Fold:
Amino acid sequence: MTNTNEITNGMGNVALDVVGNQPLAAKNKKKTPGTAVQIVTNMRPVTITKNTPMYKYDVKVMFVYSKADGTELVKERSKSIFKGPEHERDKGLCSLVYKRAVRQCPELQKGGPFYYDRQASLYSLSLLKKDPLTLNLVGNDLSKKSNFLRVEFTVTKVADSFQSTSNAIKQSVNIHPNLADKTILEALNLMVSGKALEDPNVLTMGNCVHYLYNDDHIKMDRVRVLTGEKNSAVGTCKSVKTLEGRDKDPSLYLTTELKATLFHPDGYTVLDVLKTYPKFNATRQANDAWSVTVRNSLLGLSCYVTYGPNGNIGVERPMIKIRGFGLSARNQTFEWNGTPTTVLNYYRQKYNINLQFPDLMTVVARGREGKDQNIPVELLELCPGQPVRTEQMIGNEQSDLIKLAAAAPHNRNRITEQVVQSVGLGNDREGYVKVGAPEVVTGYVLPKPTISYGGKTVNWNEPGKRDKTKPLEMWQGLTNDLCYDHQIVYHPVSYPAPLYVAGMYSHRGAEVLAQRSAVYKEGEFDFKATNEQLGVFEKKLFATRFNA
Structure:
């Protein structure tokens, strides 16, 4: 009998194969109703040197350690299986190894230029003479662990089917998605981020989102939350895409979008964070009301362990993830070497640490063999670069962040341009890739719609219906106000703001409010009365998030 997993996997493969090989739907014919306007987009044309080969190489970064029995333990960092801070740590170590390899290997100094993604891919505009290229690297600048032996660094050319050239732009698009060759786009996405990846003032999440550590020169609002010492950071996400272009000739474009994110503090101990919350005291327990709120804001955070033999070796320190809070170090007991003991006595006897807050709740984390372990909050340090996830937000943090990100179009364009320049997206150092100014395209402001009912007649007996069709100036005004001041959020990457203002805003007003009677006095909306008529009593309409 066929295994159930085999059937499931087979069906999945068939479905994906069918989807990828089906031709895309034909484009709709362009229509030009309304008034033509010029729109500055978030798309920048990309030009690259013609007739230039792009060689792709596979990179392996293997850290080798000695074990107590004399054998070797090998950890590959170049194909990180982790997420979050652990993944970023692996990328940082790979980057460190690559830079050392460049200094040590003449072939990596003369060839290129090279573009390394800090994991398993290296792109070069010249062919390496030696394939594979293997180096053994040593030194405590690569690892400060006492049992560290060496790093095995290997560069191997991948199969010819994965190689590309600068002339392969047309091959990157296909009416059948499975047949599109994305190699050139992968390479260019890495190339345009080259400066950002090397800038110490830029925090890169993944390979496409870049945040500024110091963004004081950007003129925009900020969000700072004193409880938890959370601060907003501004950045941009980017993507190199193949679009139709002006002459219906496949052309490369760099698209960018503004990002505003709240971050946890770097380098704080969990104790430091707890102290920022009002009514903190040294005897807080995991089951009191104060701790429940605080726990939600810290749950899932990654922390470095600051004690033990590896507690002071930088990014290679042991890392744990907060799963919750437990009893205090004085009250929490467990079995150690066959004898019951408390967390307080364990740290005093094994590590010679006298805890300053023995009566404060401890952090619960996953220990050996999947069992829970309790760690004092004063011995855990938050890993850097951790964004505040939605489930970690408390109070008005989410709404404040939404307002910050949903800037008015003219401000959004200005801020995005400043951020793109600050993080260094665009032209590479060698001049192979050149990025132009934002593209200006023609858009059309749609005519204002009118409200009519079935058969273009009015049902006089239905409460709330209008006695005649009416242009939507009032509804457009309300929805515009909701958008810019009260959190209707939208994504202007594909649909420039003027089109949204004229079209989607009015449509939203018609759809949500057309059959109701918003109170409109002296050119302004009475939101309280509007809330009542819309049946929104528990919370204000303008405190509710709508996705347009």
Notes: The longest helix spans residues 85-104. Residues 53 and 181 are 15 Å apart (CA to CA).
